[in-house]
Structure formats: structure tokens, C-alpha cells
Amino acid sequence: PLAVFRQMRQQDPVHFDPRMHGWAVFRYDDAQYVLSHPQLFSSEAILPGQPHLPSFLGMDDPRHRKLRNIVSQVFTPRMIEQLTPQITAVVHQLLDQVAPQGHMDVIRDFAYPLPITIIAGLLGVPAEDQDTFRSWSDSLTAANGTNDTPEARATNAQSFQDYFLQKLSERRRQPQQDLMSRLINAEVDGEKLSDEELLEFCRLLLIAGYETTANLLGNAFVCFDQYPEVAEKLRQHPEFMPGAVEEILRCFPSVAGDTRVALEDTTLGGKQIQKHQVVSVVATSANYDESQFPDPERFDIHRDPNRHLTFGYGVHFCLGAPLARLEARIGLTIALRRLQNIQRDPGQPIEPVQSPFIIGVRNFPITFT
Ligand code: HEM
């Protein structure tokens, strides 16, 4: 849709879409404006009939700030950095499993298992419970092509809740050196998180951190297939990987946009927005805005600055960005080092993810030596 978005940026950058009962925002500056004025554009006021976003992702300040501050005390870039050995070990394990065969489905065998194993580890799920945890997570997030009935989904959500409430009480009795124990004890202005808030945060990690990262990893392989010279360059120069990850995030944003609701009548790009109308920031378009990114359709791993909006902007900026970046940098560097002559298996058609919110593919079979 790049050509359509280009046209929208020029001709109707703040566009009313009757099917959405709201506005789509295509230009970078307007998108940034919406995301940096949460007092006008709310994350909390949701439409009737839509599921509430979990935890503080779906809240406005001051509650959002309070909960985010507590979590961000322990979910710090430094703490994430310490996951390097675990991430490296999981990547090697996953590749060990497929290496003898010489082929894999990137999505099934690599992109999904890596982030969910890391999230499970963060939440302190022991190895013997990991398979169960994954099946609940797939059901809860409808990830990995799971097509559960609403009843099955409700049962899985309940099991997830019971499991974590039990874990929380275990951690209260016997604190450990893990994220959960630290979250239980973290406080701001004498206030701690309640059990319900802790549980909401577990759900948030899954919903915000699982499919998003999986699709980033999948999209990277789509990119390597499309630009084999880039893959080759990264093999020779792994130090360029951080820039490559940012460019993959810009060009194939696994989160396609962010939704807000206007709290007041206001104007944006010369249009009258009415109170209660939905305003959707289209990251997929803003990331290609020529006023921000020279020659935007060129895939350039050396692009600097590269201020894409794929992790959002402003007070809700993705708290998991350091983790997503670290998983992608480590995972892709090791994959390129270990897998040579990567070829897409032409016999199997690639299916895109069927969601307006996610850019990604549902399968990506490759062969390698
Ligand atoms: C928020 C994208 C990975 C945790 C967000 C937002 C975006 C985003 C766009 C802001 C949404 C809004 O403003 O409405 C992504 C992408 C990821 C990724 C593209 C991977 C490529 C992760 C991971 C975690 C995580 C791995 C944690 C394990 C969060 C949390 C928030 C958030 C906690 C809420 C922040 C707040 O509301 O203050 N993410 N995310 N994300 N993300 Fe991520």
C-alpha cells in the first residue's frame, strides 16, 4: 500500500474513514502530535464493544504514569542487557533443532519460540511448565494461527490467571532474583502494585511483547530474502546489525499503528475532530514520510537518524523496545552466522498475517546449508 499512503500524505493526510468511524493520520508530524498530546488523544477512552487494552497501555495519566514508573524501575535497559546469555542460549537451541534438517519454517521454528521462551523466563515459568504456558499464550493473544473458540479462550485465560496468582503468592513467601519478585517489591510514593495489577502486567508482556517481536524476526527474514546483498553485508559486518534492525522496524513495522480517542473537539491538519472520535496513527505511512526520511522507499541499514514510530512515541513509548532490539540483534546475528545459503522454499506460498494492526507473514519456509 506504499503508493496509496504516499497519495494520502499528499492529498488527504488526516482522513475520515466512515468504516472506522474515525480518522487515519498519515503524516509523520501529525502522528507525532497525536502521540505527544495524551491529554487530547486518550489511550483509555475506548469504543464500546472493543476489548480493553491490558494494564497501563490502555490508561491515561496519572494512573498510567504511576504503574509505568513502578514497572520501569525493574524493567530497565540494564536488566534487559543481562538477558544476553539466555537469549543467546535459546537462539542456539532453536537452531540446533533445525540445523541437521537443512530447512525450517522461520515463523514456526524461530520467530515465535524465541520471544515466548524469553517472556516465560522473565515471568519465572519453570522449564517443565513452558509448553503449557505457550499454549495459553497462543490462545490468549490468538497468536501463531491459533483459532480457539471463545470458550477455549476463556478457559485458557482462567488457567493463566490461576497459575500466575499462585506464582505470585509463592514469590511473596519466597522472594527470588527474578522480575516477578522485584515487581512485587517495587513501589512509587509508598505504593506497590496490587495482585490484579501484577497479573495485568503479565498479560501485557504477552500481548505487547510476543507477536510483535515474532513478526519483527519474521520480517527480518523476508527482508534478507528481498535484499540478499544486505544479508551478505551483515554476515561480514555484524556491527551493522543494530542499524539493520531499526530499518526493518521502519519499513516493516510489526505494529502498524496506534489508536487514540479524542477527549475534546480539536483540529488536526486543518480537520475538525470531534470529541469521542477515534484517531488512528498509521505508522506504516508515517515511517515513509519523505519530510522525515529522505528517499523513504530505499532500504538503508545506515539510515541516521532513523526516528521511526514503530515503537510509538511519547508517554506510551514501548517499554519493551530494548528487549525486542536485543532479541532481534542476537537472534539475527547468530542465524546469519550459522545458516548459509538461505533460500526461500518457492514451493510454498507465503501468507500474510490477517490483521490490520500487524505487518508480518504467517509462514516463511527456507532451506539453508
Ligand atoms: C507499548 C510496539 C515489543 C512491552 C508499545 C507501543 C508500541 C509498541 C507501538 C505503544 C502503543 C501505543 O502508544 O498505543 C512494539 C513493537 C515491538 C514491541 C513493534 C517488537 C518489535 C515489546 C516487548 C515488550 C513490550 C518485547 C515486553 C516484553 C510494551 C509495554 C508497552 C508497550 C509494556 C506499554 C507502554 C505504555 O503504555 O506506557 N509497544 N512493542 N513491547 N510495549 Fe511494545
UniProtKB/TrEMBL annotation:
CDD domains, A to Z: P450_EryK-like
Pfam families: p450 (PF00067)
Acetylation among keywords: no
InterPro entries for this protein: Cyt_P450, Cyt_P450_B, Cyt_P450_CS, Cyt_P450_sf
Record key words, sorted: Heme, Iron, Metal-binding, Monooxygenase, Oxidoreductase
Similarity section: Belongs to the cytochrome P450 family.
Record protein name field: Cytochrome P450 YjiB
Annotated organism of origin: Dictyobacter halimunensis
Lineage: Bacteria, Bacillati, Chloroflexota, Ktedonobacteria, Ktedonobacterales
